[in-house]
Amino acid sequence: MGEETGNFAEIHRKYREERDNRLQVEGRAAYVLPEGELADKYDNDPWAETDGARDPVSRDIEVLIVGGGIGGLLAGGNVRQHGVPADEVCIIERGADFGGTWYWNRYPGLSCDTESHCYLPLLEETGYVPKEKYSHGPELFEHCQRVGRHFGLYERALFQTRIISAEWDEEAMRWIVVTDRGDKIRARFMMMCAGATNVPKLPSTPGLSDFAGHSFHTMRWDYDYTGGGSEGGMANLADKRVGVIGTGCTAIQCVPPLAKDAKELLVFQRTPSAVNPRGNGPTDPAWAANLKPGWQMHRMENFLNILSGLDEGEDLVDDAWTRDFAAVTHYLDEHADVPPAERQELLDMQAMEKVRARIDREVTDPATAEALKPWYGLMCKRPTFHDSYLKTFNRDNVTLVDTKGRGVERIVADGIVANGELHKLDCIVFATGFYTGGGMLGNWGFDPLGSAGERLSARWAREFSTLHGIHVSGFPNMFVIGSSQGVLATTRTYDMMIQTELGARVIEHCRNEGLARAEVTPAGEQRWQEEMAAVRLDLKQYYLDCTPGLFNIEGSEFQIWDFYYGGGPVQYRRVLDDWFPTHFERDMAVKRG
To answer: CA spacing 20 to 30 A to 464: which of 17, 47, 299, 554?
Structure first.
């Protein structure tokens, strides 16, 4: 085993060293939500053409959808396909258009990191085939708009609007929803699709407000300052010294165009990402012309099954994701005599050794190459994919400032202090991701009041239980999309697609059968808790050995997979298909009206 991976013990030592180094950093998980003056600066809407002022509306409708991103569009498309008229569907969205993360994120270099033919929603339904294997930002946003038009979702949508309260009215058997625009919506059903990718987060670095130069977050890119657009061409940076904080998925994509246009670029790194080849290219017209009905679902499930360790025979996507996971599956099958834990660890290390070897091939300065190497397991952090990020550090105008896991120390009037040294800057770009510290309710911005007079926050504090991650007892006619106790697919479109499809089928059933109210019973929730426990992924030790991050909740004893169905995305879909309509009446209390 040691011969196949080089110095196996040495790799282990470096993994532990990297983990322990990060664990010792005080406040390693500390991020702040932009509020007050910070919100005005970092959480504005640079894309809205107006302030959205309008007269309040009052409506009685069938379905209210919270959020106009991918989840909300899937919900809207699915309920429309299951018989709800367009004028009975209302989407409330904070932004000025549909798109969610693809509305807010428009930074240069933005693209999918999973194949667009699997990721983009409702391709067959809209008759669209992506132009490339990995769609860029403008195409992703345009397709969200296409879905909105196709299903007639624009006509009743309320944009630039936030919900401030939602309360269940038992007598009316409706959700009574009030917005910050003074709207009052009475909805028979409510689908919660507001995701976690619309509010930027900032590092809790001292001095955030002290910088005298210009700064912005990648989720609110300031093209008025940089010039150019999604393709680059940021001519205004030609005489600027720019610093980027962050080296995750976003920075991997925006650093190369920044390096081309800025006079000087400094990239401040806390922990390096694992950067795999992308290999983008145009969609084959002959392939697109011969697609058969059901092709997208088949392709999605082929991709996800390979990532779940199943041998599909044929790899339809054939990218860095599937090649690595398929290699693991084949190796495990061929070496059945080696204990499973050892086999998995060996393959994990081999995959990461490939990532580190690529850095040595592409980065010319040995010290920079060494600093860019990720010393942790394959799934400790979300892998990234790019073909020019690593080579960017060969440019004379680019400097990697490696903080060795400690992060920047403080921000001052003329720049950033890191490793005890002041780096003078004209502009700071925060590529620090989106805020999840407030949980799902924090992302929604309001706290629903259920049928028993209890807030959802109190209900979940008392007992965090659901049915399929979708239904919550005490909250009738409400569907939670993307919650814990559902499933977490590599391409989030799939899990939101199957959850919103189930919600739409339940709504159709209630409408057809004259059911005014449907609420999961505690017994139904308990059955799901037992099924969750039976397939739970026990990866505790693996993630304890990882550097702190999202997947191990910043080095805690928990791991993100504790909160999701462990049977895999495709099996989760089979579970939902088996449940409805066969077990609907067993697990749901219904009332006619």
So the answer is: 554
Q: Once rounded to an integer, what is the mean pLDDT over residues 444-471?
A: 95
In a domain, 306, yes or no: no
Are the C-beta atoms of residues 64 and 175 closer than 8 Å to each other? Answer: yes
Task: Tell me how far apart the alpha carbons of residues 1 and 342 are, in angstroms, rounded to a whole number.
Answer: 9
Closest CA to 481 of 494, 491, 464, 490: 494
Q: Encoding tokens for residue 125? A: 């339904």
List pLDDT tens digits, range 26-39.
Answer: 665 577 777 788 88
Per-residue tokens: 353: 């050794």
- Bridge partners of 412, per DSSP, are 415
* Residue-number span of the structural domain to which 19 is assigned: 2-32+202-278+342-430
The torsion angle over the Cα atoms of residues 5, 6, 11 and 13, rounded to 10 degrees, is 130
Q: Choose among 192, 162, 169: nearest CA to 64.
A: 192
Residue with tokens 């925006």: 254
451, 476 Cβ separation under 8 angstroms:
yes
What is the CATH number for 194?
Answer: 3.50.50.60
SS3 category, 244 = strand
User: How many other C-beta atoms are found inside a 10 Å radius of the C-beta of residue 508?
Assistant: 16
**Same domain membership, residue 92 and residue 218:** no
pLDDT digits (tens, 9 = 90+) for 407-435: 999 999 999 999 999 999 999 999 998 87
